[in-house]
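Posting here for the record, re: iron/sulfur cluster.
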Amino acid sequence: MEFINEAFIHSLMNDSSLRNGSLQLDIIGKAKEAKGLSLKDSAALLNVTSRDILEELFNAAKEVKEKIFGKRLVVFAPLYITNSCVNNCLYCTFRRDNKDLKRKSLTLEEIEEETCLMVQQGQKRLLLVAGEHPKNAALEFIGKAVEKIYSVKVNEGNIRRVDLNSAPMSVSNFKTLKNFGIGTYHCFQETYDYNTYSLMHPDGPKSDYAWRLYAMDRALQAGIEDVGIGSLFGLTDYRFEALGLLSHALNLDERYGLGPHTISVPRILPALNAQPEFNSPHAVDDAAFKKLVAVLRLAVPYTGILLSTRENAEFRRELLNVGVSQIGTGSRTSLYTGQISAEGDQRSLDEVVMDLLKLGFLPSFCTACCRSERTGDRFMELAKAGSIGRLCLSNSVSSLKEYLLDYASEKTKLAGEDLLNARLGAENSGFLSEVIKMLERVTDGERDVYV
Ligand code: SF4
Ligand code: SF4
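Prediction output follows.
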């Protein structure tokens, strides 16, 4: 666990020389080259308090996101397959000792039904989420669930990529998982602070900090090339968590030549019957949260930053402008949750797409990379060189066109066509003719057109 150097992280957080405004501006200037930042530079930016420097930071984060990925925003839908869990995380509603929670695990028939609903809305990318349970989230069941999801076809529509967020596994189980054909494997450390981790995860398999921390190493060793890390912000000082995440990212990059494919930034919400010992002593306010997202974007420009539906629509709009590149949508579809949380972004996919269009983003249903073997170091090479944006533009445009023709409401369709025309009208690069040909193929009835 030596790469999470707590003493070093604390020394950076407390280093008063890193609070210097002109130093922070210099770092922001350097960050615009989109080559990433050291831990020390990131610590300096996490300490920015000046309103003017914060504006510079946000503008730089937006610029870097667009330099690498362009205007595209990948959309995906979460699907929870079970809320049964053998762990007892103090902050989580699903924890084993919460006897007031009605437990529900989807059957394969329910997974099929849920997938149909998502496909009918136009979703193409699904994030399967499971707690830790020997039966309801067993590897074998996950395999059957993934197979079921990929088998669902509604007219020409289907889910083209299934990502997974599940408990850590052994190398041999990760090898089995790879054969199920998943995209990115996600597993969040929750907190990188060892003592807080031990307090929050008192028993169950998750109490083993190191087993979880090295999950991505085992996944990579097993041949799963796209891995997603994350922290649950609010368990400890947000600056510590951000620097812990970056230590993890830098370590993966150094050892495997590829950093995390995504970083997720869930923020803690009050959980039903959470343990009274836990009362969120490190709640992260909106201003700090926006800052940390911007710093992550500048520190690891090649990594997707993924935002769930936990945040409300208005705040999500702000975060899209400081580096977020993937967003969850369609939280209303979950059969298993039964009761829908009043928190977060509960808009339908069509409403979110319309909103993104109005904001000038290109909603993307693209799943091209993992289906073209552009994963791991091949993806990183393109992203680090700033060459992925060209593919993102072509594929986003093609996948958006497909959505507009097959699923969008009339209003969204009009807004989408307007944006496509304006976007292509402004494009004078050499690959414009390629994009136009792709659009023509989609208009003529071909589906799943990508490069
Ligand atoms: Fe909740 Fe995940 Fe902890 Fe289970 S392992 S109690 S689902 S946070
Ligand atoms: Fe994502 Fe690759 Fe598609 Fe770009 S081209 S949106 S990186 S899958």
